[in-house]
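// run 5 | inverse folding | seed 20
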């Protein structure tokens, strides 16, 4: 019976939590001045206004845009969709990702993980 292999972090890849935060920060958010009060305070999804609960919300991290301090959160469906779009955009512009056979660069890997796991 084969020994299970364990994935190890390479020098150029960020720790999983750092990579997750990096990927979340790369998602393009709507302008705060176009959002409702509920979206600004994280009660509803920043993209589709779905009501969020502590169990369903994906915290996108606090943001400051001009005079706004806001706390965007999103639903898993929107995080998956937006992270996949960000990954496609990244791969299109990244020589390393575009030129490799399935291997992603340190910026692309966290976006891939986020698109697969939907923010969890």
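// decoded
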């Amino acid at each position: 019976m084969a020994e299970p292999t364990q994935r190890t972090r390479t020098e150029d890849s960020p720790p999983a939590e750092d990579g997750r935060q990096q990927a979340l920060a790369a998602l393009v958010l709507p302008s705060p001045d176009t959002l409702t009060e509920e979206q600004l305070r994280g009660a509803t999804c920043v993209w589709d206004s779905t009501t969020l609960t502590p169990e369903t919300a994906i915290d996108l991290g606090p943001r400051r845009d001009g005079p706004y301090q806001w706390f965007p959160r999103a639903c898993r469906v929107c995080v998956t969709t937006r992270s996949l779009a960000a990954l496609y955009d990244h791969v299109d512009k990244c020589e390393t990702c575009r030129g490799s056979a399935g291997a992603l660069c340190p910026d692309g890997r966290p976006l891939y993980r986020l698109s697969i796991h939907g923010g969890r």
